[in-house]
Amino acid sequence: MADSSHPESLIDLIEDLRKLPGVGRKTATRYAYWLVSQDQTYLTTLGKKIHAIKKAVKICRICGNKTEQEVCGICQNAERNIGQLCIVEQAEDILQFEKTGVYQGKYHVLGGVVDPLKKVSLQELNIDTLPDRIVSEEVTEIILALNPTIQGDATNSALQEYFRDQDLTVTKLGRGISMGSTLEYVDTTTLQEALNSRR
Amino acid sequence: MADSSHPESLIDLIEDLRKLPGVGRKTATRYAYWLVSQDQTYLTTLGKKIHAIKKAVKICRICGNKTEQEVCGICQNAERNIGQLCIVEQAEDILQFEKTGVYQGKYHVLGGVVDPLKKVSLQELNIDTLPDRIVSEEVTEIILALNPTIQGDATNSALQEYFRDQDLTVTKLGRGISMGSTLEYVDTTTLQEALNSRR
User: Fold this and answer.
1) In this structure, are B36 and B79 located in the same domain?
2) Full-model pTM
3) Which residues of B touch A18 (CB under 8 A)?
4) Residues B37-50: pLDDT tens digits?
5) Between helices A25-36 and A8-17, what is the axis angle to 10°?
6) ipTM higher than 0.90?
7) Number of domains, chain B
8) Do B53 and A43 touch (CB under 8 A)?
């Protein structure tokens, strides 16, 4: 940006802030200027938290959820061992399901989706612990809760193939979620309906 | 948030990110989860930049603009000494004017607005260097470019009173900016029109 009124260090910060999801130059600029006008205490705290967040947050070694322990709160909760396993793309999606209060089973985070264009297959996702989980947690139903996108559909197909010869009911989220939307922004009611009408 | 699936350190980061302008819980959560999945290098860099931004960015001792030197690029540029001084609320507003390419004079940043409700008067804003500037920069025209809000109007009135007995043309930004909007988000064309039709 050949803008003489823009200090170099601000341009630099703006470039980094623009990487945040959904943030363009205008929003990043707004954030950067706002940050300059804040207390140093807040800036130091926020800076430290951002630096430390990756180390503070672990991945649950059972389900792939984000946690501060080895195993997340949901996996530790024996009451949730009801034979249901809900497979999601990312840990954020678990939050959405938890908000509905409808689902009482456990989760499994793939950490990505099957994407034929980018040559990502199911084998590259977090599925290694699945066979063990199905046995030890006595899973009888798999709920596929991928985003209603082309990649989500490809992942569904790959998982249906993966579970084909096993004695499992494999369901998909039902009516309620419209093509093209992402789970992260679906409202709670729609998600409840989708859970209830899974097929 | 009594959400067992939300690690404490993420809740903590989300609370801090929510303070960013225009950011609610949903966006803050999205940012936080996205940050966790980034490279540690990026997180460390961003954290350091946020921590250091306040020290890196100085306030120009002449006009109040944000700069990395004692005096900002615009104040250093002698070609911009054309007798015009554009008074704005905040340094961000200078960027907007610079983008239009129409204005060739200098700026003065008040760093706030007159607000009768909060008992902020003109004397508490950055006006101490104004008398000296008017003499040394041979200013003949003052352009009042405050936001079209109640506080902006109060600031305009206070400045018109302040300049009353001086041999100066005092103009205000003209047609083009609609009541209730803020300069930061006005498009370039509207701002060009407003500059051209100042009165």
Assistant:
1) no
2) 0.71
3) none
4) 899 999 999 999 99
5) 120
6) no
7) 2
8) yes
